[in-house]
Amino acid sequence: MTITILNENLSSRIAAGEVVERPFSVVKELVENSIDANSTKIKIEIQKGGLDLIKIIDNGDGISNSELSKAFERFATSKINNSSNLISIPTLGFRGEALPSIASVSVVNAISKTKNQKIGAFFESKFLQVKNVKSIACNKGTSMTIMNLFQNVPARLKFIKNASSEVLRIHKLVNYFSLVYPCIDFEFISDGKLKLNSSGSKDILEIYKMIYGLYSKNNLLSIDDDEDISGYKIAGLIGSPSIYRSNRSYLILSVNGRIINSKKLIYAVERSFSGLLPQRKFPIGIINLSIPLDQVDPNVHPNKAEVRFINEDYIFSLIQQKIRDTINKFSPVKTIQKKDKFDFFDDEKKSQISYQKSNFIEKKFQGLEDVILSDKGGHQETLKNTIPILRVIGQHSKKYILAEGPNGIYIIDQHAAHERIRYEQIFNDLSKKKYLSSQALLDPLIIEVDNDTTSLLDEYKNELDKCGWVVELFGQTSLALREIPSIITKKNGGLVNRNIQNIFQDLLDEIVVIGTNDSWLEKIVASLSCHSAVRAGQTLSTDEQKNIIKLLENCDSPQTCPHGRPTLMQINNNILDTEFLRK
Length: 583
Fold this sequence. Notes:
By secondary structure, the chain is α+β, with helices and mostly antiparallel strands. It is built from 17 helices and 26 strands.
């Protein structure tokens, strides 16, 4: 087989596949160019999901008449000029591949004019085969019109499901840009219908509420944008623990204005909410990171959605610390408020929730993750959320403890509350004794698992041992469980092998997908807490109810169980007075 050099047209179409995967990619590249051009207004218009038409109009710096056609040559860029510039890249675009890649698979009309020019330039191209440039009267800025996308690459069209899915992708992208750049007025039109107009008000909170609508001001917490001594800065919004979603698409990350995908940093945000959200629920918000340019490398992939950090672990810890500090300013006891008659929802946070300094969270995470040091070199203290002193009234439905407190009635979920108590007790025991007591089984319990599970358990066996689960490998796909935590058997004296296997299997199902030391330990302790706590449906004496409330009052995070469910809620006296017509 003879080796030949591909012609320019074919090589451009192949290269375009890395940069221009779908209409979404075209919009992203062109909007980033508009942002780099210092635009304050960007209009995005599409038809048929961008396959028929994509039009981007901005009021940015523009491209000079003499350089407009050059912008469509491969590796032509105004943003870097030598290899040293790759060390610190301040712009979103820099590779010089976007415009020629787009032009090679579409019909392009481009109009642009700079501030100092009296007349602009018009460039047209048909799949880069026919090019034409002429002068034209126009406003300052740039207008890019992309038509008949992928008409010369029919195979690419087969992988685009439908126009509606592309509209959703592009709409979400414009939403993200509006939040990362609240000072820019973004307008998005699809098939003649206005989908978004962000107004460029600079108020990220108002823009977020305009886009997602449902969240009140009290539920969106502003992250203080104090600059770290190393030049790192984190700003944005994070949702309070009372609001969450079933997927991660409502959490936006940007680094130096670049919207990125980073599983590790998203995990850092999720770890900040550990124990505050229900299982398989995710926080919402927008995290904008400003990092010294020489500490981050965006030149990883042509789509520029991935970046590398020189000190990723430090950024991981900094995100966690910032979000925890922000959450700790929020009072998370759910309060029933009145909206309409017999229609209640939680809205405001009550002043009787006090804050005291606590070292529990620091003890819990010490040795499991990087610790952020204060300017003086010591550990930063974490605020403790406390609940008021409560007086037991009684038990309801064998599930809830009713209590009287300041300015209202409190309802405590007996299982969730006792689960929180057990969780903190176990961590405190581990900090003192290093190991929990265990009880040996008369005969080892053999459990069948897959290869991945046995490999992972072999690596993290010590964490299970610490918590009383003594387990050994028993072949390639089997485990031999020899001892179980005593704390489980104290509350479940009649445990049989099937119950034990179910408890252990549930634990494996939760922790096998994690793969990091700190999450393993937390999941194991959370599982022990759940199975050693009083159950829903269990009758409690008055003394037992009082003891649960007393212990809960002394917890460092009494408002939620380790799995994120609330432990208590309040019905305000004002609501009672209103419903009984005393007001």
